[in-house]
Amino acid sequence: MGSFAGLFSAQAIADEVKKQGKKCILLWLCGAPSQFETWDPKPGTETAGPFAAIPTAMPGVHVSELMPQCASILDKLAIIRSMKTEPSEHFQGIDVLTRGDAPRPPFTRPILGSVVAQQLGQLDSPVPQFVLLDPCPEGNEFKAFKGGNWAGWLGAEYGPVRAGGEYSIPNILRPESIDEADHADREALRRFLSRKFENDQSSAAAAGYNAAFARVKGLMSCAPLFDIERLPADDRYRYGPGAFAQHALLARHLIENGSTFVMVANGMPWDNHVFQHEMHQMLVPELDNVIYQLVNDLSERGMLDDTLVIAMGEFGRTPWLNDARGRDHYAKAWSLAMAGGGIRGGVVHGATDERGFDVTTDPVDNRELFATIFTTLGIDPAAEYDLGDLPTFHRVEGDAKPISTLLNAG
């Protein structure tokens, strides 16, 4: 099969893709789900676990019996069964799989959502271009998602607006003790002093934070978009009552109304070092339904061709069970799913051996994955960041190429 990557490399094509309004929803499965209980079951082997493999809409392709709804639409999905990455601990895995590469201290590479927002978003839009929906905004063990420099060298204006828990943006309402005129005067003074500091110090960081502050007025006007109670009850019922499911519905709503990148995190439930099968028996059906509802909704609304959906964690799980009947971290051979946004449906890329210990066909690392994501969104993966006198960084380092079999021809 010929490569389609060249069709996306021309600047004219990339410009046209930008005009079409490409968007992305990342279902971030924090803690790392098991490939054996989702996309790459190994029936009849000692690594398989208690769940059967079931046929799908793609003849000859099977997935776990815990995913019957995704099985029915596998012709709309692309599955990578041959992910092979380096980090096997959460902090490092999260960094590499959300930023595309390992850190090069003291420089901070921007997270995927920041790059997409900077390249495809509208900074002057009142609707936030990069949104992180997190059901546990008060914190959990994965502090990489609770602070830090999200946007890296792109600047704070491309960082995420974070919401979650109560499905709303916190701390944006004007206190009743401050009237509108007083509020405007305070903002004018803040803006004057901040701009003076920015100009006196020639500070790019200050410029970024000033741009981030400028978004607050827009956020106040679009706050109702985050009120999930305004969405149809039937939609809320279809997606399910869980926080992850409701945030996925909210992500669809935000994308429909002007956001460019929405990341839906789900705390840390997939880190099943204990009672693996029992935990996945609870977790996977929700994921199955969320992907099914989201892909079908986007398709019915005519948005799937322009909206890339990614469902992944930071690595996979071991082929064996530990003494606590859990699966531990495993980066040597794992799976993820994608759909829409120029990704070809009905594709299973790569393969693992009979028991799932290693990749046997078409291994994919984080760089090739990010080259594929950027390419299908119309973003040049080989481009250099404009960092002045700093060392050279590219959107994707090395000579990584997108996975041509996953890209639509047009």
Share of helix, binned? 25-40%
Class from secondary-structure proportions: alpha/beta
Q: Segments where pLDDT lies below 50 for 5+ residues?
A: 1-19
Question: Looking at CATH, which topology would you report?
Answer: Alkaline Phosphatase, subunit A
Order of strands across the main sheet: 6-5-7-1-8-11-4-12
Give the N-to-C terminal Cα separation.
15 Å
Task: Tally the beta strands.
Answer: 14
Per CATH, the superfamily is Alkaline Phosphatase, subunit A
Structure, explained:
The protein has 410 residues and is an alpha/beta fold. The protein has a single domain, classed as 3-Layer(aba) Sandwich (Alkaline Phosphatase, subunit A), CATH 3.40.720. Helices cover 33% and strands 13% of the residues. It is built from eleven helices and 14 strands. The strands form four sheets. The chain has an eight-stranded mixed β-sheet with strand order 6-5-7-1-8-11-4-12, with helices on both faces. Strand 2 (53-55) and strand 3 form a beta hairpin. The two termini are 15 Å apart. The model is unreliable at 1-19 (pLDDT under 50).
